[in-house]
Amino acid sequence: MEVSESDEEHLNHMGMDCWVTAPRPPACMKVWVMMHMPMKSIYSDLENSVTSVSGLLDSIINTCKGYKDVFVPTKRDQQTAEQYTAFTVWLLGRLFYLMSSSVLSSKMDLCTTAQVSVLRLLERYRCSVFIGVINEYLNCLEDIAHVQNVDVKMEAPFVLKRFVPRSDDVLEEQLDLSQFQVVISNSMGMCVRFQTAVLQVLSSVLSSVMEYDRSVYNKLWVVLCDTLAVAPLTVKVHVFDLAASILRKAGFTMDVKIQNIFCQQLKSALSATNDVFTSEEFPEEERVGVAHTLKGLIDVITDLNGTEAVDLDEMLFAAMKFVVVKWKASIPTGGFYV
């Protein structure tokens, strides 16, 4: 087969003629373009994109079910792998940033499903990329906790800049992979939506994080501690649920220092939000839901305490349960017990 100079570059190196194959886009580029165009269109008018967002998210979910080659390279060369990584990171970032719009909050569950669908493919076929992306979700939680910390003085608006793919000249000839960025320091509502979305995603891929990378797993606990310290009660509930899910996993172990820090933060978080929780303005139905979630966490800590998995300081454990008892008093009969 003849090779055209448009496809390859002719070099003369040290007196030897040779042909070097020019970088090419991956075979699935057309599919990427088909995903890229509506995503860019949605971001041009987020506030009026509810219908188009639903269609795009459904399309991504279905693609993950039947066409894994869109996210998993069939060729094993480094260039192709990097191109796939760049597009996947960009797409996950764009899915994540959809929650910057309060209008799209009704699509959070569908958006989470789309992200998890992509992540499950990465988990199965591209483990290192999977762990890298999970780490980026944790970085988002760290950034948001920093903004929510009232002890930190913001000298300038804080811009969330995550899920930025590595540049690729070949891809950028057809795709603009610049990532969306948003100021979060002036919108606590946006922070809560982002935190909720990330915690939902992490809950869905929890087992894999525990299995594949211990450092990321330990970082997860540290981030949960930070989130408990500064986030509003609506977010703390998701932390309760995620922490209980982790503790229930067979073979669970946690560094003793981290587990005591977590439970200290849990006790402090319960104390700090007790007034909010017991307020008559806090709907009874929500109080019961929060209480059941908290009960699940306390039950599993109680069951594991004194084992190899959990070994809390006795005074800390007693203090934590005392705070929970205070919460109990505000719950309708049958809603909560310790």
Automatic annotation (TrEMBL):
Organism expressing this protein natively: Coptotermes formosanus
Record protein name field: Serine/threonine-protein kinase ATR-like N-HEAT region domain-containing protein
Residues in Serine/threonine-protein kinase ATR-like N-HEAT region domain copies: 51-253
Lineage: superkingdom: Eukaryota
UniProt cross-references to SUPFAM superfamilies, sorted A to Z: ARM repeat
